[in-house]
Amino acid sequence: MTKRTELQQRIAETKATLMTHVANRVFSSRQSGLDGLAKRVVLGKKTIITPDPDLSHSELSET
To answer: pTM of the entire structure?
Structure first.
């Protein structure tokens, strides 16, 4: 068992509690309020991926 000071134990428990709250908000199905804010902060901006014609397999889709 590791030896922690009382302060270190409180900090570890607080971090775990906060991460639990954030994870619950991020994985919820709601998109508004604190849930939406948590998702925007954690997930960041979405990047738009444009299709690359060199990577398409058009010969497979013709059959």
So the answer is: 0.50
Where along the chain do its domains lie? 1-43
Q: How far apart are CA 32 and CA 38, in angstroms?
A: 10
CA 62, distance to chain mean position in Å, is: 38
16 vs 37: CA distance, rounded Å: 20
Per-residue pLDDT of the chain (63 residues; tens, 9 = 90+): 578 899 999 999 999 999 998 888 878 787 888 778 877 887 777 777 788 777 777 666 555
Q: Which residue has 């990047």 as its token pair?
A: 47
Under DSSP, is residue 61 helix (H, G, I), strand (E, B) or coil?
helix
Report the distance separating Cα 5 and Cα 15, nearest Å: 16
Can you tell me which residue has the tokens 């607080």? 14
